[in-house]
Structures are given as C-alpha cells and as structure tokens.
Design goal:
Distance between the termini: 56 Å
Structural class: alpha/beta
Strand order of the largest sheet: 1-2-10-7-8-9
CATH architecture of the largest domain: 3-Layer(aba) Sandwich
Largest sheet: 6 strands, mixed
Number of helices: 20
CATH topology of the largest domain: Rossmann fold
Strand content: 15-25%
Number of strands: 18
Length: 508
C-alpha cells in the first residue's frame, strides 16, 4: 500500500495542473471487438486525439505556464525529436513566448515541419538525441532559457496525471487494471500516483518495450540503471534510464511491469485500427499490447481493463513493416524453415501435408540435389499452441522443421533473401542498426576500411530513425577478433548472427 502522505503532495499538484488551455479531455472508448475476443471489458483512453496527437502537451504546458513571468520572458528550450517537441512548441505558442526545440539533424522532415508549424524555433544539431540534448544545455546556459524536461519534473508529471483524473471521472464503475506505457515514466508516474491515492484497489501496470525496458531493469536492481542501448521501433519510449522522480513514484505505486515485443506492438496497432479506425504509433499501442499479454498470461475474464493510447505520430513509411509483422505478433502466422526432398512431387506432397492452411509466404531456390530448405509462412488461428501442433504434425510426417516465428533476423532479413547458399567458409554475419541519414552507408564503409570483403548486404527502410542492416563479411587470413575490433570502431550497434539457424539453412 503506497504511503498516502507521500502521495498527497503529488496529487495536489495534479489537481492544480493547468492543461486545458491546449489539451482536450480525451474520450474513454469501449473496444467492443477486443472485449468480445478477450472476454473482458476493454476501454481505450484516446490521447492520440490531442491537438499534437499525443499526451505530451499536458505536461509541457503545465510546466511552462507555472514559470515566473521573468523566466517565461526569457523563453523555454527542450531537446526532442518527437512528441515532446510538439507539446513544447504548442505550449510556447499559446503562451506567446519563445520556444526553442533542438532536434537531431537525422529527424524526419515530417516531425521538423510539424514543430515549425506549431511555432517552434527549430535548431538542428548532431546525429542523435544525446547530441541535441547537450547542445540544448549549452544554449540554455548561454541564453538563459528554461529547460523543459520530457518526463523527470514534478510539473510535467502533474500535467500527465490529469489523464488519470479524467479516467476516473469518465468511468465511475469498477476498474480492475490500468495499463500505462513507459519510456522515461512521466505519464506512468502521474497516472499511478493519482490512481493509488484515489482508488488504491485498481492495479496500475506499467508496459515497456522489451528492448528499452529501463523501468523493469530498475525494479529488478532496486535502483535506477542505464541500459547499454535501446531499440528504436517504439521511439516514443526509447529511453535508457527511468527518471529519478518517476522511479520514486513507480516503486510505491506500480503493481507490476510487463514487457512487449515488436510483433506484439504491431498486433496492437492493428487492433486499435480495427476498433477506432486510427493508426497508433508503436509506443501508443504499447499499453494495449501489455493488456492483451496480461489477459493471455493470467486467463482473466469479466474484468474491466483500460489501456492508454498515448500517441499517433506515425511515419507513413513504417506501415509496411508493421503490417508485415502484425500476423506474427498476434500469433496468427507461423514462420517455418522446412526441409523437403529435392525431387519431383516434393512440393505437392508438402502442400498436402500442410492441408487447407493459407500460405502467406513461400521462398525457395535450388541448393543441392538431395534436399531443399523452404522458408514458409502459414496462417494459424490459435497462436503458439496451434503453431506447436503444426510443427509436430509436419515432423510426424517426416519433415525436419525449424520454427523461426520468434527469430528477429529471419523476420527482418532472411525472408527477403532466400536465394541460395554462397558456400563461403570464412563468412561472418552481422546485424546492424544504421542511423537513417544521408551518407550513413558511406560513413560505415569508410570507417570499416577496405581490408574486409562484403559478401552479403541487405537493408530495408522501415521509416524509423534507424535502419536494420544485415552484412556478411569475409575473414580471409585475418581473425574474428580483428574483425570485431574494426566493427567496434565503426560505432554502430551490432550483433553477431553467424550461428543463426536461418542463416545456416538459407544463406550460408
């Protein structure tokens, strides 16, 4: 049970927060299709309908409007490439003060133009958020601006907490759990503090992306930790360290933390589209992904569950990647590597073994005269359980089957590369994240040098800040240690995929 006295001051700030000069009271809408499917009452808090398509303007305005006249006259500054930037820009414009937004030079034009349209003075600096943040600190010292933190500030937390005030006013009946997306924790802290103070019996569940789970790591360690790196698919929650203020609140107000995969977020984006005909950003759909995982894990029925759709600032180019991953995330597609005899009639026999399932993908190219490795996608209806039955059924019929449904490299790259083996004994395979900016590939090649031969290269633009790249490099007469030393010097995050079974079957 949280310390009520400790929460009292936070809740007082929330009740005194000023947000409606710029924000709307977003609707709490029933998700009828999901409710029927999950056998629970599912409600979605539509923060994607805010004027900047995100909850972020609540905290930004509350922070700025509480500044002294002197501080407001000097102007405000923030570092952001996303929703916080738009929130600060709109708040500053509404209050008639100068708002400086420092953004990395790699920021997509759609976001830069959105901030400028809201009246923000955009300063493009550096290639990363860290570069932009450092430059914002420099400008703050030189010009006397007030820095508006994206999450770790009491007034920011209070502004975001107004979401919880609205939820309890809009649904006065029983609520079993509220699911909140977490990056730095501003929304989570505000919602959790208010809910636990007013309705302590309601479970507040934080939801993080698996590859940026800084709160889960902090909860486990009992203190804030800094992640070495974070995934960028859900860029709205891609934070390496939970905030100090927000973690203090989380420790006493959060019932549990659930983490979700990229595929689970993609499936939740589709669910929100099916319910509301709106396209959520990955971070916006994160809480619904957590809600679905919670229901599946615990088998709960007849409960009232609320997910906060925190935003809809989605780059259009990302939709193809999301659509591709949705069926796997929902457990409706099995991605398999199947070995069949290289002989006449083998394809037909395999299709008969599959039965009347819908084939979503079928990739094959001749490799040798004895056997063939087929990369196949098949529709399943009941997730992992049916997938396991499918694999077991094929194995009983004599097929060697490898389930690749959870293999990130297979889903990102291999399915687009199936085309025969190179037969290079000295090849090593690496998966990189490249910043999406002009010259990134040339910078990579320049830093790598000419001593390594590139034997495979696959890249797809997914509309994110970082591109996923698969690279094969030949060792020649040099050692693996030397190669990895060269890759470390390049500075891009990478992982060694040389032992990946999809590579061994289809590309080696």
């Amino acid at each position: 049970m949280p310390d009520v006295l400790a929460l009292d001051a936070i809740v007082k700030r929330i009740l005194q927060a000023r947000v409606y000069d710029v924000a709307i009271e977003s609707p709490l809408e029933p998700a009828r299709l999901l409710s029927r499917r999950l056998k629970n009452t599912v409600l979605i808090k539509r923060e994607d309908l805010q004027p900047v398509f995100s909850f972020k303007l609540r905290g930004a305005f509350n922070k700025i409007v509480k500044l002294s006249d002197n501080d407001r006259a000097k102007g405000v500054i923030c570092a952001s490439a996303g929703n916080h930037a738009q929130g600060v820009a709109l708040a500053a414009k509404t209050l008639g003060i100068k708002g400086v937004i420092v953004m990395p030079q790699t920021t997509p034009d759609i976001k830069v133009n959105a901030v400028r349209a809201l009246g923000g003075q955009v300063v493009l600096h550096g290639d990363s958020y860290d570069d932009a943040f450092a430059h914002a600190q420099t400008l703050m010292s030189e010009k006397g601006y007030t820095f508006v933190h994206p999450f770790d500030d009491p007034e920011i937390i209070a502004g975001q907490g107004t979401v919880a005030v609205e939820i309890l006013r809009q649904h006065q009946g029983a609520i079993d759990a509220i699911f909140v997306p977490v990056g730095g924790g501003g929304l989570m802290a505000g919602v959790a503090a208010y809910i636990k103070y007013v309705r302590p019996s309601v479970r507040v569940i934080a939801v993080e992306a698996e590859d940026s789970a800084c709160l889960a790591a902090a909860m486990k360690a009992g203190k804030r930790v800094t992640l070495d790196q974070v995934g960028l698919f859900a860029d709205g929650v891609a934070v390496k360290q939970i905030g100090k203020h927000t973690f203090d609140i989380a420790k006493v107000c959060i019932d549990e933390v659930i983490t979700c995969s990229t595929d689970e977020m993609c499936a939740a984006i589709k669910d929100i589209f099916d319910e509301c005909r709106c396209i959520s950003e990955p971070a916006g759909a994160l809480s619904l992904a957590g809600l679905k995982k919670y229901v599946q894990r615990d088998g709960v029925q007849g409960q009232t569950l609320i997910a906060i759709n925190s935003g809809a600032n989605m780059n259009f180019d990302r939709l193809r990647h999301i659509a591709e991953r949705t069926e796997v995330g929902e457990g409706r597609e099995a991605v398999l590597a199947v070995t069949i005899p290289e002989q006449a009639g083998a394809f037909k026999a395999f299709c008969q073994a599959i039965g009347k399932r819908n084939v979503t993908e079928f990739n094959y190219r001749f490799s040798d005269s004895s056997e063939a490795h087929v990369f196949v996608g098949l529709t399943v209806r009941n997730g992992a359980e049916e997938r396991a039955e499918l694999v077991a059924g094929l194995q009983r019929k004599g097929y060697a089957v490898l389930d690749l449904s959870d293999d990130e490299m297979a889903k990102l790259h291999t399915r687009h590369l199936v085309g025969g083996h190179a037969g290079l004994a000295d090849e090593r395979l690496f998966r990189f994240e490249f910043p999406e900016r002009p010259g990134a590939l040339m910078a990579f090649l320049t830093q790598l040098g000419t001593q390594w031969n590139i034997s495979l290269f696959h890249y797809r633009n997914h509309g994110a800040a970082y591109g996923r790249v698969l690279v094969g490099l030949q060792l020649g007469s040099r050692s693996l240690k030397e190669l990895k030393s060269s890759l470390d010097a390049v500075g891009y995050p990478y992982s060694d995929e040389s032992s990946n079974p999809a590579y061994q079957l289809f590309l080696r």
